[in-house]
Structure formats: C-alpha cells, structure tokens
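Budget justification aside, the reviewers requested a transparent look at the raw inputs and outputs of the sequence design task funded under Objective 1. We therefore reproduce one unedited record. The lines immediately below are the structure tokens for a 145-residue chain.
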C-alpha cells in the first residue's frame, strides 16, 4: 500500500516541472520531503524556524540542498531568486494575521513566471483521526489548520 506521504511528489510533478529549477521549500522540517524534491530539481533551499529540524535536515547531506533557519513571513532572499516555492505541510503553521505577509514574501522571491505550490493536510480520514485520538504525529492540529 502506498501512503500519500510517498505519493505527494508524484502528484506535484504532474503539474510542476522541477527539472533545472531552483526551488524554495518553506517549512522543510527535518528534510523528509526535501530528499524527494531535491532529486527532481537543480537546487533546493529549505527553510524552517526550528533549528533542531534544520540540523536534522543538514545531517541528510543532500548534495544539491541547502538548509537554513527562516520563516515565510520574513524571507532573506533576493527578489525573483527562485523558479518555484513549495509549502510542504507548513502554511497552516503561519499565524493567520501573518499569512498575507507570508504570501507577499514568497511571491516576491519567486520569478514572475514561477509557481507557488501548497501541500496542506486535510481534516478528513483515518490518519487525521488517529493523530487526534492517540495524540500521535503532530497531534491535534485542528486549530492550526
């Protein structure tokens, strides 16, 4: 049985061509999805506000990936530096009053012809229900979502 976690990139690359692209991954966490994305792009830059997660991502030694501490609301990149940006299960963690600023920042750093992709969790399904019931994974993220 394939898990959605394992299929997410297959679904994204059907509509987004990462080949030869410089990609910004917003909310890269420990780099779990970064490995898959990096295989399809020229360069990946992952940001996350949690230093321990960035340290874990760096330990993966992904040859074409760079990781740094950062938040979507305040990106330390040049205008139009990236071909694409992808929020990997992270946009719902941006405080609601700061979401519009985060969107402005990410569109600033992505080229005019570039794309911004959102991979976000849903509320439905057995997996989400199990996370809430057993306080597993990220626990109950209902309020954040």
């Amino acid at each position: 049985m394939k898990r959605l976690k394992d299929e997410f990139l297959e679904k994204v690359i059907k509509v987004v061509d990462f080949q030869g692209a410089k990609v910004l991954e917003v909310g890269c966490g420990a780099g779990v999805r970064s490995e898959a994305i990096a295989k399809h792009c020229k360069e990946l830059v992952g940001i996350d506000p949690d230093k321990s997660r960035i340290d874990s991502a760096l330990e993966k030694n992904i040859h074409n990936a760079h990781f740094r501490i950062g938040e979507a609301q305040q990106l330390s990149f040049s205008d139009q530096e990236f071909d694409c940006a992808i929020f990997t299960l992270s946009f719902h963690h941006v405080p609601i009053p700061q979401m519009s600023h985060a969107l402005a920042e990410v569109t600033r750093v992505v080229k005019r012809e570039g794309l911004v992709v959102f991979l976000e969790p849903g509320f439905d399904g057995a997996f989400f229900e199990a996370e809430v019931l057993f306080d597993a994974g990220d626990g109950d993220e209902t309020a954040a979502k």
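The mean pLDDT is 83. The CA atoms of residues 50 and 144 lie 17 Å apart. Computational costs for records of this kind are itemized in the attached budget.
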